Structure formats: C-alpha cells, structure tokens
C-alpha cells in the first residue's frame, strides 16, 4: 500500500524555514542529514506534494509536528506499515515459512566460492576461517610517527602496528551480535565478502540470528541493475528477490517493517563512481526507514568516504598465527582435494616450513587471506617455498592490483591522469626507494602527495598546475590505497606500505631500474645494515647480470678489516689452518668452518662475535658438511676449549649449570681423543685426560680441583692444540675488533647469499669471489695476480 503525498501549509512552510535557520542548515544539508536527494526537500519548502514518509522525516528532522505543518488534526496517525497487522506468533510463523522458501536461493548465492587460479568452486564452509575485527579504525586514530615507532620493535611485528597491539581483537560474529548496524571495513582480500556469505549461511541454517531471514545483496550488481533513478530502490530490489522465491511483496514489507531481516550489503567500494552517490543515498534512506532490521555493510577500509548514521564501523584484523594454521589445514583438504589425513599432513609441513627464519618474508604476506591462498597454491605446485622472492612479490602485486578484481568482474575507476598498473608500480618504486633510504617506514600524507606530484611531472603529455594537480595527486593516493591496498593509513595523515617486505621489493626494483655504478655504490654503502639485506638479495635476483654489483660488494668487504693488523693476521692464520686440512670441500667453506669454531671457543664473555645461527656461512657455501675426520676432530677440540672457558665462568660466578659444563667437557674431550690418529697427539691427550678427577655428582670435589689446577690444565690443553693442530690461540680481540669481525661475518654471508640468489653471475666472477672469500688482503692480491698472469 502506497501512502498519499502531503503538502506543507503556508504556516507550516514558515515554521519549517524558521527551524532550518535556527539549525543554521541549508536545504542541501537537510537532505544530506536525511540521506535523500535535494528534490523532495525543495518541493517541501515550495509547498508541493511530497511522499508521506519523506514529509514526516523532514518534519521530524526539523523538530516539528508533521500534522501541524500539513494543517492536519494532531490525532492523525502515520500509517507506515501495511494494513495487515500480525501478532507475534504469526510473525514467527511467517519468518519460518519465508526462510524455508529462501533456503535454496541463499545456498546458491553464498555457499560456494570462486577462488583465484582454482578452476572448480569450493564450498564456503569447507574453507571458512573465523575472522577477528578491531573495534577502532586504526586510520582514524590521531597518533604521531614517534608513537608508531615505539611499537616497531623489529621488522617481524610490522603487521601488528597501528593499534593492533593496543586493541582487543573481537570475533566477527560477536561484533555483529553487539551492533544492529555494522560496517565491516578491510584491506583488499581480507575476507570481507566471505564473512558476509558466512553470516548468510549460518542465518539460513538457523544457527545465527534464528529469528531473522538472511538477505545478501552485492551492491555492485544492485547498481548495475538500476537503469534509472527510480530503480535505485532497495525495498523493490528485495521484494523482487523474495518474489522469485514465491514470497508476496506484502509479506516482504511486513517482515521488513517488523525488523525480521538480516540484510547483508556487500562491496560498497565496488560500486562505480558515477552511481556511488545514488547507492549511498538509497542505503541511508532504506536503513532509516526499516531501522528495526539488522544490517551489515562491507567495504574496503580506505573507501569509507560515506558515513551512515547509526552504523558502527569495525576493521577486519590480519590473520594471526592460529588463523593461518586453520586456513592452511582446511585449504589442503578442500581446495587441493587431498584426503583429510593427507591434507592435514601437507598443511603441517607447510606450517613448519613457514615458521623457518628464512621464510619471514612469506609469513608477512600470509596474514592476508587472498595472498595466503596464493602461497598455498605455490607450495602445492613446488612442494615447498622455492619460488624466487622477487617473483613471489610480483605475483602478489598483480593479485592486489588487478587479478583479484578481474576474477570478480569488478571494474575500478582509472586513477587520476589515467595511470596504468605499470605507471603505478614505477611511482611506488620511487616512493619506496626515497623513504626506505631515509629509514622512513612511516611517512606524513603531505610527503606522499609531494612525491606523487613530482612523479606526475615526469610523465609525458601531462601538464598539471594548481588545483588540478592537487586533485590528481589526491586521486592517485586514494586509488593506490583503495584499489590496491599497497599503501595504508596507520593513523590520521600517516601512511606506510601495507607490508614492509613490499617496500623493500619496490626499493630493489628502483635500484635495478637505475642500474648504474653510482646506484651500486649507494646500495653497497648499506651492506652492514641488517634491514637492507633483503634489498640486496632482491636486487641481484632481478638483474640480468650481477657481476658488477657483486664485485663492488667484495671490494667493500675486503677493505672492512684491511687497516687492522691483528685481524689481518687472524685471516692469514685462518687460510693457513684451512690449507693444512686435506678435504674435498671448497677452501672458502673450510675457512668459514674454522671462523665459527674460533667464535665458539672464545674464552671471553661476550664472545669474539655474535654470529646468527651456527654455521650459516659455511652452509651457504656448500650445504651440510658431511662427517670429515679432521674437521670433526678439530670441532670437538674447539668445543673442549669452549667448555673450559664456560666452566671457569660458571665456577667464578657460582652458576647452577656448572655441572652441565663439567659433563660437556668430558664428552667433547672423550670424542676428540677417540678421533685422534696421530699417536703422539693421542698419547699427550690421554695423559692430560687422566689428570681430570672422576666426574660424578660430587661437584664440590671437582670444583676444588678445578680452582686449584684447572687453569694450568687449560693452558696445557691449549699448548698441545697449538703445537699439534695449530688451533687454541688466545686471540683476545678488543671490542672494536669484535664488532668488525661480526660485520665481516655478516657481510660475507650476505655476499654468498647474493651469489646463490643471483639470476646470473659469470663463472669467472663467481670463481674469483669464492677463492678470495675470508682471506687477508695480501692473500687476495696473490690470488688476483695469479688470475692476471693466467
């Protein structure tokens, strides 16, 4: 039943104009507040006929009696409901009947997913992973860059910045239960649509909101189906949808009026720009008219330029470790079509490899569901994370920038100045390179806008000035934020890249784009800085020939300790000792082995240098070194020397682990003696071993002996090792030398990693670098002279 229109009387118009003036509103602002177009407001003030519902809303907004404005008796009621009146029991019966009729349609709409690069559809309930939301929108918080840096303890927690640590993560279902009107915001591929589909399925089954009927509307399709202004009508859209399921329009209106629908409006950001205002106005009008229903709207987080009265906004949180694991185990069963047992076994293998230190860059991307899905595809095809990181990032960018929209047939508006995806990548390369070199993980909006303006100035055929330049740079920033999700607001007016690893990737792309000696020298100047290491690896993996940059790196490394005579002497010993060992392994790998052995046996605390994890450099050169008698012997002897130092320290400081060091000393020494082949060395070591008192639970007795004779015993051991094995020296590096050794180890490890990651290195350069690795300057010159003369 359609209500007849109403007209304002002359007295009513005067009262309305006075009320409008008192509120200091214009007619346009009144229309905006009501969520309607300006036309009915203009008609109202002109005394023309306006729809009954619209008339009443205008009067209520102005604080006036609609009856008085229309010169009607005060006892006239506004019949906003259909004539038929339902009692509670009748409504409940109607809800059950309608849900039954809608059952199949909702299942068809929402129970399957078309996933990226997967040919078959996937059942939503087989893959769905519960989401969490943040109750405060991080981009709306007023924080300073210094506040964000306080949370930035290490690169591994980059995704937890911007309020994540300080906010309670609320289960998505709980958020919907708490609020009758909810807007779910999130980054591209964060699972917004999947969550709304899940709500529809659960409601359809009666598991969630059992007293309501699910209605799922893709706003993109709603906008496409509206060919005229009159068709931007959600009531009619729902009525037609219900009518196709055999539900009369009168029943639909009753259910809406009684608030019996769970209305899910998906993808506000996907509505074409030319229709966005009309769709927004209609959502405002509809949600205010049928306010008793429960509403959930989804949109990308940076696209919320529209605010709806009465709606609470929440933000989809990134996946945490538990959610990643749940998703992965489901994926390898539901998507990869493995048996449950096999799928979960592969899922566990995926998770174990994901948590390895070298896969930090993959973990950072895996917090976004769409990227985690694609990483699972890669793992399934390659039986591991063997994809070149640069290729991994490039594919991730393509997914975020256009492929994810392509498979859903979402057409985004062209960026200001019609930037192509390639132009946007070049812009992001420039932004990343400048900010990363300045160690800016977070940057003010104005800085981003200026860099965008500078880039636009370099494009051919674009000549922007003044206001137009301001508008276009704002449009470019918003497009990158909304459409691609590659830049995110961490707080009001403060931006960062969505993933730190992508900032590094864009930085490396810019360096490759320049490809000049000057850029290589600039990059190499950051070689000792940990946060630049991934940039080095990405750069060499993208270069067609890495000879030049690797040679510059090697020259820089060789000069690092060149002026320190003691460290040069140490490197000379390292070469001499390694050369004395008969083994099939590369000389550089053996040098790396003894370099780490020296560190482990250092008698001073802190140790000679703090290496990262065991034999990283040696492993990078040759992989796992299999058992070699001579290397094993020296390793146990070095371990024995280390135990002596540890035991001295433990007894001196009365540590509780002294007994453990006593047993470790005995084990290492016994194994070393067993491996000795030289009869003279074996004899002197066995004699030294007999001097040790019996090692049992009587620690006090052993301690007394150690304090009386332990130092002398340790000196004897060192003298024997120096005489027979050329090891066991007191190097006694000072703090500066220790720091230099640490840097030297790290940059050599980086150089070897770059060799192994490079797309191409000429055999000559590879061999020269490898043969001069971990050598003193004099030895390097000797090797190079051999190359020159050969």
TrEMBL record:
It comes from the Bacteria. InterPro entries: Lambda_DNA-bd_dom_sf (IPR010982), NACHT_NTPase (IPR007111), NCH2 (IPR054501), P-loop_NTPase (IPR027417). Pfam families: NACHT, NCH2. Signal peptide: none annotated. GO terms for molecular function: DNA binding. Residues 180-300 form the NACHT domain. PANTHER family: SLR5058 PROTEIN (PTHR46844:SF1). This is NACHT domain-containing NTPase.
